[in-house]
Amino acid sequence: MSNITRITPGVRMSKATIFNGVAYLCGQVPDNTECGISDQARNMLEKVDALLKEVGSDRKHVLSVMVYLRDMKDFAGFNAVWDTWFEEGYAPARACIEARLARPELLCEVSVTAAVIAN
């Protein structure tokens, strides 16, 4: 018997899955896509904050992030926002790759893994 908790499970995916005190968030993309990389990144990270709270975690407990950028020319712009999102000393393990995203107007997406601190 498993202790897997699925947050808002759907046919294709759940918003998040929790197992052994670790939350795996589904890919997060910005809602507002009629703007540049900085605003898309900020909007997307606000969504990550909300989902972290929903699973009982926060930025200080993010373990790993995979960043997907539509174009690596946005790397510096994304990082300018990213670098203000974490308090000093709390940056997670991270990788960043260029990828074709689900919709052409999306400039960024993140996949986040975090430790759960509360239920």
Explain how this protein is built.
By secondary structure, this protein is of the alpha+beta class. The chain has one domain: RutC-like (60s Ribosomal Protein L30, Chain: A), CATH 3.30.1330. The chain is 25% helix and 31% strand. It has two helices and six strands; from the N terminus they run βββαβαββ. The chain has helices at residues 37-55, 75-85; strands at residues 5-9, 14-19, 22-25, 62-69, 93-98, 108-115. A six-stranded mixed β-sheet has the order 1-2-3-6-4-5, covered by helices on one side. The longest helix is centred in the middle third of the chain and has 19 residues, at 37-55. The model has no long low-confidence stretch (mean pLDDT 96).
CATH class: Alpha Beta
Shape descriptor: globular
Number of strands: 6
Low-confidence stretches: none
Fraction of helical residues: 25-40%
How much strand content do the residues show?
Answer: 25-35%
Summarize the structure.
By secondary structure, the protein is an alpha+beta fold.
Descriptors for this entry?
Enamine deaminase RidA, house cleaning of reactive enamine intermediates, YjgF/YER057c/UK114 family; RutC-like_sf; 6-stranded mixed beta sheet; 6 strands; YjgF/YER057c/UK114; 60s Ribosomal Protein L30, Chain: A; alpha+beta; 31% strand; globular
